[in-house]
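To: structure subgroup
Subject: Chain for Friday's discussion

All,

I'm putting the inputs and outputs inline so they're searchable in the archive.
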Amino acid sequence: MDATSAFSLILERDPALFAIVGLSLWVSLSATLLAGALGAGLGSAVALTRFPGRQGVVVVLNALMGLPPVVVGLLVYLALSRSGPLGQFGILFTPTAMIIAQTILIVPIIAALTRQVMEDLWGEYADELNAMGVTPWRRMRVLLWDARFSLVTILLAGFGRAAAEVGAVMIVGGNIDGFTRVMTTTIALETSKGNLPLAMGLGVILLTIVVAVNSLAWAVRAWAERHAG
C-alpha cells in the first residue's frame, strides 16, 4: 500500500513532493557549480606548481575528501549564527546556507580528483609545453581543456555527493517546510513520523537521480575513451 501511494504521488505530480525535489536540485546544482570552479582551480594550481609544503597540501586535500558532513554543518552553523563572523548577513536556515555547506563539503573532492588528473596530464605533456615556452596560466587552460571529459565526470561525482547529503543541510537549513526542506532531510523526517508514502516517493526520485548521474558519468567517460582512440 505504501509503495502504491508513493508511486501515486509521483505520477500525480504532487506539488509538495516536486517542490522539495526542485529545491534539492537547485541547492545541489548551485553547490556543484561553485565547488567546480573553486575545486578545479585549486586542484590545477596544486598539480602544476611546486612550493614548500606542497606534499602536505596534497595529503590534506585527500584527507578532506572524507570530511564528515555534520562537522561541516556545525562549522557553517557557527560561522552564520548571530554570534558568528557572518551572522550579520542573516542567511542561516536559508537555501543559501545549504549551498555554502554543500560547496565546502565537495570542494575537496573536486580539488583532489582534479589535481590527480592534471598531474597525470602534466607528466605527459610537460616537455612539449616547456619547449614551447607556454606560460603557467596558458598551461593550465590547455590542460584543463584536454581534461574536460574527466572534469565532467568529477563534477557529476560531486553533484551525486551533494544530492545525497543530509547531515550538513539539516544543521544549517533547519528543514523548514516549504523553505529549506530537501529530499534527504524530508525522507529522514517523514520516515520518523511514519509518513512512508512521501518518504518512499522521494526515495525513488533520489535513487533515480543518483543512478542517472552515475550512468551519465559512465557514458561521458566511455565517449571520451572512444574519442581519444
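Points worth raising on Friday:
The chain has one domain: 2-228.
Residues 2-228 form a domain with the MetI-like fold fold (CATH 1.10.3720.10).

D.
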